[in-house]
Design goal:
4 strands, Cullin_N, ubiquitin protein ligase binding, disordered C terminus, four-stranded antiparallel β-sheet, CACUL1, Cullin_repeat-like_dom_sf, alpha+beta, CDK2 associated cullin domain 1
Length: about 350
Amino acid sequence: MEDMEDDCFVLNDDYNHNYCANSASGQVLYLRNELSDVPQPLSISPGLATRDVAAQENHSKVCSSSSSGLKFMDSDSSSVSSDTSETDSPSAVSIAGKLTLNSASKFLMNAMTEEDYRTTYWPNLEKAIDHLLIQNPMDHISISYEQIYSCVYKCVCQQHSELLYKDLMLKITTHLQQVSSDLQISPPRNLIENFNIALTRYTDALQCIVPVFIYMNKFYIETKLNRDLREDLMKLFTDHVAEKHVDTLIPLLLEAHSMPFQVRPSTMASVVKGLYTLWPDWAQLAPAVFSGFIPQINPPTVESQLSDYAARDQKLQMELSLNGFPRCSDRRRPGSTQIDKTL
């Protein structure tokens, strides 16, 4: 009886410590649980069991052949060899050739002509640039920066970089010429304020224009022209706006500097720093004004001129006192009397 049971139920252990039992009705696989050493039964159909037995026989044949000097090959290598043979087949080569021809034909069909650039792409870019240049900080304008970048990317990829760069420079030059004309008719008392608005609005617009044209800047301006887009656009403002009004601005800045608070300090600082950024040599036209906002404008201090510096400070204090600014010794700080009484 015990021999019969041994014939009907035999446990085999594989390298994963899974147990396989053979019986007359089929094959039962016991999987070892990761959390327990007790094998868990998993029923397998007779068809699958037959395939497993055939696979084991094939594996034993391959191993025996390898021991006799033949090359060992497992199922993975056989699948790779089959994939390679399928790829190298004439049908696969013909399919690859068709895909190459189709991709080339699609590229030719999607090629952008100069007429397409003029009628479709540049009008959209020009409209977006107009919004960025003339927008009011208080107004909200919805602009798709992704769409602008996509248009620039397509124009550069289709070999229209030079045309795009020329159109961009011409567009901004035309805008700056209009800005200069508006400043020309501005009253002198408002010129500093209006120049500050124009400069601030332009620099804010560049914060948006330069990033969306970065692909053109990287693959055309920096590579072929050896320049930078932002520097070129700032030079346009210098040539068409700042240079035409600097001779009028400097006397107005000197006058505002001699009369404190005639112009707001924030406006004075913005204009002076902006002019210095555009062209540092302009600081020599009014060192007294620029030295109040830009460091190291005046020459270094010399010990032999200390008496002149002291006389200059006394003169400044006298002018301030004559203009209604009392000295610190002439008045007490607010609340000082009350503090003395409490003490």
